[in-house]
Amino acid sequence: MNAGKRLSLTILFACCALTLLAQDEVIKVMYQGERPTISDFVEAYLFAPVEGDQDEDMWVDESTNAVKQAWIRHRDGIPQPEGVTLTIDKKNGFILYESRQDEYLTRVEMCYWNEADGKHMLFALNTGLYKNGRKSMGQYDGISFYRYDNAARTMTFCDDPGFQQEFYTEDGATVSYDLPRSGKDIKVTYWYDDGSKKQKTLKWAGNGFSL
């Protein structure tokens, strides 16, 4: 087995382990008004308590914890350190954390969708690592989805809605995802070693996505 495939399997197994842990999460969303905002979802996700865990930062991975610290600085009116930006677009229900270090860029996006049944909302967190402007697979890359129940005011982990998430393809591409800041669709980009890339769109269908 070559190094690329070994890396792919290592990342896949790590993500499966995180998925198994996430399936038991029931996160309470606290908010005022008729509906939660993107900030309410982010607060709920980043600061969700974990029963029996004395360290509140241990339940999130390193990249998500970095977002948490940036969120705390924003909330407390403290400037972000050099290379870190936090974009909060409440109107479009979108938040972007970026951290630049040398040639590397870490991007963490968060957004939500109103589902067609009027009873649920879908919250997503997407992490991606880039090197010199091109996709570079990181340890925590990928999208996590949580379905919010309006009546219970809780959100729980859910499987990829309507598609199967990829990290690598059989023809050698590395895969990245971009959540929508405007519109409702997810953009998928396939990065090839020869410098080329291609894209496709996962279209929002009211309760999930379709090609």
Summarize this, please?
The protein is of the alpha+beta class and 211 residues long. The chain has one domain. The chain is 20% helix and 36% strand.
Q: Could you please describe the fold and organization of this structure?
A:
The N terminus is likely disordered. By secondary structure, the protein is of the alpha+beta class. The chain has one domain. The strands form two sheets. Strands 1, 2, 3, 4, 5, 6, 7 and 8 form an eight-stranded antiparallel β-sheet that branches. It has three helices and twelve strands; from the N terminus they run H-E-H-H-E-E-E-E-E-E-E-E-E-E-E. The radius of gyration is 17 Å and the shape is globular.
